[in-house]
Queue: 3 jobs
Job 1
Amino acid sequence: MKFDIDNCTLCPRACHANRTKQAGICGGRDTIRCARAMLHYWEEPCISGSNGSGAIFFSGCALHCRFCQNAVISAEPYGKYLTPERLAEIMLNLQNQGAHNINLVTACHFVPWVIDALGIAKKSLHIPIVWNTGGYETVETLQALEGYVDIYLPDFKFFSPETAKHYANAENYPETAKKALSEMLRQTGKPVFDGMLLKKGCIVRHLVLPKHRHESIALLQYLAETYGTDQFLLSLMSQYTPMQQDEQFPELNRRITKMEYYSVLDKAQELGFDGYLQDSSSAKEEYTPDFHLQGL
Ligand code: SF4
């Protein structure tokens, strides 16, 4: 993979930061930074299983969604700097604690260093590697992960460029996420299970936003027409939680209604998607962990 640390184009923002001197839009400098490592029980059941997923939360994010559910680590300069060697140790510690997989959460802006860590850890790791991402990734960066990642867990957040611009100043999000998903599916193929646990494959997550059910329905139709419904698992999420009162975007100041969620859920079922279709009563804040540098 071509990576110029002094002219970074790792992610679709392509902000050309000289990361030896300053952080890019993502907040990333020239060293891995993480906020927490933990056994995580709130992912999809085929990821968390009974023992938990070995989640490592990376600090920073290139996307900066207005409604981010993890803003404390994605938008703030918060976290602990780690070498690839230390990150590899953390992965092995999680495996020793019984984690079913290593779940790398929003690591796109640290890909070269993460690949170094995976190269060290892979010799002793015997559990799948999960790439847990906002879906805003370049095909080139994803290709660099081929052979290291077993399971892709991307969001597909926005289907219209207008909405992507409105909430994340990323008009190119839909086109970028489409290409990224095609590359992820090329690498993994259809889901492969070992008992209840996913060993290989792709889970596409979509968080239904207030006042955006029609866009969610259009996304589901696109996914079904483009890929069919048996190439990946769909995780349709209802737990949108307003993290602050937003005067500029007042429509984001409430949770979604049952009508909004069930209209999207009905379409997912009508199209024949398989996966995780939450009941709207599961909209709770417990899905967002606290970040206090534990496990690092
Ligand atoms: S990874 Fe960060 S520094 Fe690199 S292009 Fe993206 S936002 Fe800029």
Job 2
Amino acid sequence: MSRLFLQARNLVKRFGPTAAVNNVSFEVKKGEVLTLLGPSGCGKTTTLRMVAGFEQPDEGEIEIENTVIVSAAKRIFVPPEKRRMGMVFQSYAVWPHMTVFENVAYPLKRRGVKKAAIQEKVSQVLELVGLGKMESRPATLLSGGQQQRVALARALVYSPQILLLDEPLSNLDAKLREQMRVELKELQKRLSITVIFVTHDQIEAMTLSDQLAVMNLGEIHQIAPPREIYERPRTRFVQEFIGRVIWLEGRLAELAPGGASVEIAGDEPLSIFSRRISEDVKKGDDVIVGIRPESITLAKEKIAGESNQLPCLLEKRLFLGDRIECHLRYGNARFTLATPITESFSNGQKVCLCLPPDSVFIWTKPTGLTE
Ligand SMILES: Nc1ncnc2c1ncn2[C@@H]1O[C@H](COP(=O)(O)OP(=O)(O)OP(=O)(O)O)[C@@H](O)[C@H]1O
Ligand SMILES: [Mg+2]
């Protein structure tokens, strides 16, 4: 087991009346990647900037290897330059009037490192990020991906204890982004460096993280390894934000320790059994039911003796080359489901969805959500 490296406890940051970051706590182990994932404006950058020291929290504290580096209550604040952290900013800001070498050497120069040592260290990190032959090139003549590497090299050059990366791949096109994602993961593993990574891209978050923190409106909804987040979301927001979900509405008819039954609103009275029930739902509540499409199987007709079968109308089928997209309707609920091209359904026919009880999630119906 790796050691605990950084601990953030109950961080709050207000800009005016609203809290941009509201009671956020997390831990990062040495050599691990923690990702902050969430929609625009949810407080990712603000959280990262508090870790880096560019923003002071109104409440809460941060500890590195059991030493408090910032605490609102104890009035402790270690300035950014004393934190031994490397940061790549959201707009990664490579300085255009400098060469690649000068850009990367800058943090060392500011720290008064000797010329020979600078030369050696800069060459080393440029090699590491694949820019070994571009030392003297002016930064203005670099592609987006190369600028990205310069920013990364600049953050790595003084051997930080932790790397803070704020959407470092967001300015790249899709193909380069994919390539850099793989390179970044390899580099992180090779250096065994601890990383806090910020993104709103779920693929990046799933592939790069050891631990994934899903944020919304200044709060962390869940922190867990990516697979656990996907398979066992703790809130409706987490389930919706990551992966695809099919939603149905209903009413909680029965609630027992091992599971619950929901009466689904639709064409005919129907009850669905689930083993994944949000803690706040009570018998009789209006609920919404979330199901991952890949956990559903589609049958031609009801299978005798099986429960959790949802009769649907197959309204339309679209051939997409590698799969068929089935447009289905149950009552007012419409959704799509991909099937293999070998299936032999036809438009307008009745089909039956089989919903495994472990894949059916029940959440409180949010107020304001109408039919
Ligand atoms: N210096 C500031 N002054 C006032 N409000 C701010 C400031 N910085 C951030 N905010 C507000 O705080 C909230 C969180 O901003 P933050 O930049 O942390 O979000 P984010 O999750 O990084 O979003 P994005 O994905 O768009 O980068 C937003 O509502 C933002 O407008
Ligand atoms: Mg941001």
Job 3
Amino acid sequence: MTATNDQFDHYQVFDQEQGPLIENLAEIRSSCPVQHSDAHGGFWAIFGYENVGQIARDPSAFSSMGGATIPSHGFPMPLPPIESDPPRHKMYRGPMLPIFSPPAVEKLTDSMREMVTRLIDGFCTRGEADLAGELTIPFPGMTIGLIMGVPNDEIEQLKGWTRELMLDISNAPAIGEALAFFTDLYERRKAEPKDDFPSLVIGLEIDGEPISPEECLAVYAMVTFAGLETTANSSSHIFDLLSQRTDLRDELVADPTKIPTALEELLRYTSPLPASARTVSEDIDFMGEPLQAGDRVLLNWISANHDPAEFESPSEIKLDRFPNRHYVFGVGSHRCLGVHLARAQLRILVEEVLRRIPDYEVQSNEVERYIGVTRGIGRLPIKFTPTAASA
Ligand code: HEM
């Protein structure tokens, strides 16, 4: 019998405080790990570490071409590399790997630390700030600007459109304006190539043919959107959590070398990008449920990341958890291309905030949250002991 839950709607379920959300997901995972929902045109919601991993590792049965989100976005074309399947997927992703490799990220580290230092300088003498608006949102924008070769004032526009799309993935004006922006970027780089990401994409060959202008715009859009809200919201959630759990924060302040390992656990616990989508390629029986070609499937990463079958006491935060094979960055061939960049950004952010304003307190009743493709924090007001700006 088909398990049906007309009520499951990720936009509503993920819009809860962390504690109730984890409890709610645990209940769903144990009672009905594969269930059909009628929300958003109908889809199968998949819960649990093994189920989610199995589907993510099987791109021939579960395609990414039908869209990485539910509901699908309103762009007039798929957005590779995330919305592409083998063998084309590798043709987009392979040539981009060096730009996001550990050595390439290492080269950006000094500039990124300098950005964070300047942003913290902007508020550290005041004793209060909006940590999201003044740090965690602008910083990924500046980093993406560096990679895309786009100045800061232009990135501001991109951040605006990205936020609108995170809230409403088919927002036509935001899509139109973003595509016009990327068309202009494409034409500038076509006329005058630079040593940057947009020029590299223009040079790609897909299936023996030069990449089309439309595909270039799609890749620019995908990578830009992927890099903006994800890092911003991950770091905001982590700062919010560390303000509630000062015991954990004190441990990291006392020994910052624990930060990289601790970040994996804080990411697992908060799971800022809670789910991604696939489309069933051909009729298949999955866990006794009759999935049909064309059915949409929602992989609940956050449920996998809290599955006791993989993580002992998953609702406990163990800063030195090992192993910690979470799916925060996905799994399989579409695993996050920006994983090394994201980890470096988060490390720098947490190191610098804990070094310079270690006693910050989030004003929890003033925090502004939203739910979209990511679990978002739009405002994160904090108070702290004022400190001098850096020399
Ligand atoms: C903490 C921050 C981040 C999180 C939690 C995150 C999460 C994810 C997840 C879960 C996927 C897999 C989606 C799927 O399988 O459908 C993914 C893919 C991807 N991410 Fe990230 N991401 C982050 C940061 C970034 C950054 C900074 C960039 C680049 C600037 C980036 C670029 C991408 C790209 C291009 C893909 C698609 C890869 C492919 O299809 O081969 N991400 N990300």
